[in-house]
Amino acid sequence: MKLYNRYILIMALVFSATSVIFAVAGVLNLGLCLTIYVIESLILTELFIYLNPKARRNLNRVNAVLFGLFLMLVAVEVVEILMGIRILG
Amino acid sequence: MRRYKNAYSYLAVLLLVCGAAFCTLFYFAIYSVPLIAVGSSMLILGFVCLALFRSLPNISPETGKLLLEAGMENINALIEELGLRTKAIYLPSSRTGSGRPQALLPISPKVDIEDLNRKLPQRLIVKFGEGDESVGLLVSTPGSVSFDLLTSEGADGAEGIEYDLKSVLVGVLDAVSDVSVEQRNDMEFDVKLSGLRLNHSNTLVYQWLGTPVASVVASILSESLDRPVTIIEEKQNKRHVTIRLGVL
């Protein structure tokens, strides 16, 4: 349980720090924010290599969804550039 | 375990509800990108908590401890009844009939290592050599069961053993915080365990078989090297447990 708690705590701290940086830097691109959260989540899961196989399997499912979201955000960015419109603000 | 499960499920639901509310409110009401980002990070954390909640074991650590102690007390009774006074030799799965690493408790301390090169039958009392004293008890230990928890083969040498030990003791069993392995020479390894969370009673069986964590360490080392292993020494202080293992 300690490893799970450490994983959630570190992820919450990383997300909080990133949110503060976004606010301070005045980032106004929502797609960029989401992409960074997704990348942070994927990296953290890979760093916790000793999580038990069942937890890793479940987290891989979450990561697959997040990776899908990441690809969708990239696609949205491409559409925004090609068509010259703003979709995510 | 139920209290942990509840904590994770409550946290997951709370984060998902708050995250969804944050995203909706700040997207449609005032369109604040940093606050929508906070909402989306809460949603990601919520899904992670949900994933971890679904992977928690169904039985409590207390139940696991109860089963462990019952099993160890039976082995203890056998050792006391037979008057065995020799350190256990941990054998890899390739040398046991059960297909799992097991511990051999010989009746005599004089064991010819050549006798252990063949596969022993799947019996409690085994004759492993030609001599009359080449008889012992072949028992399953917590290490035998932990063999099933090994998911992949790590790298060779001390690094590979450390990886296997960490994945079982830290990742799956959650029995220690950290493991480090140092190879002293070809025949001896030092394994240092930090943040031990598995307490045990001081019974005779642990003197000859090693404590449950030492048993797991010895079984995994024996399996990784595919050679018999014995626990030479086990030292415990407030912060660490150091286990010295000898390869036979």
Q: Main β-sheet of chain B: number of strands, strand sense, barrel status? A: 8 strands, antiparallel
- Subunit arrangement of the protein: heterodimer
Calculate the mean pLDDT score of chain B and round it: 83
In DSSP terms (H or I, runs of 4 or more residues), the helix count of chain B works out at: 7
Show the helix and strand layout.
The complex is a heterodimer of chains A (89) and B (248).
Chain A: H1 2-25, H2 30-47, H3 53-83
Helix pairs in contact in A: 1-2, 2-3
Chain B: H1 2-30, H2 33-53, H3 61-82, E1 89-91, E2 102-106, E3 125-127, E4 135-139, H4 142-146, H5 157-172, E5 178-185, E6 188-194, H6 204-209, H7 212-225, E7 229-236, E8 240-247
Antiparallel strand pairs in B: 1-2, 1-7, 2-4, 3-4, 5-6, 6-8, 7-8
Summarize the model shown.
The complex is a heterodimer of chains A (89) and B (248). Chain A is mostly helical. In chain A, 82% of the residues lie in helices and 0% in strands.
Structure description:
- The complex is a heterodimer of chains A (89) and B (248).
- Chain A is built from three helices and no strands.
- Chain A has 89 residues and is an all-alpha fold.
- The longest helix of chain A is centred in the C-terminal third of the chain and has 31 residues, at 53-83.
- The N and C termini of chain A lie far apart (40 Å).
- The model of chain A has no long low-confidence stretch (mean pLDDT 85).
- With 248 residues, chain B is of the alpha+beta class.
- Classes of the chains: A mainly alpha (89), B alpha+beta (248).
- The A-B interface holds A 1-4, 7-8, 11-12, 15-16, 18-19, 22-23, 27-30, 33-34, 37-38, 41, 49-55, 57-59, 61-62, 65-66, 89 and B 4, 8, 11, 31, 33-34, 36-38, 40-41, 44-45, 47-52, 54-56, 151, 166-167, 170-172, 174, 177, 197.
Which key features would you list for this structure?
heterodimer, A: 89 residues, mainly alpha, 82% helix, 0% strand, flat, B: 248 residues, alpha+beta, eight-stranded antiparallel sheet, 46% helix, 19% strand, elongated
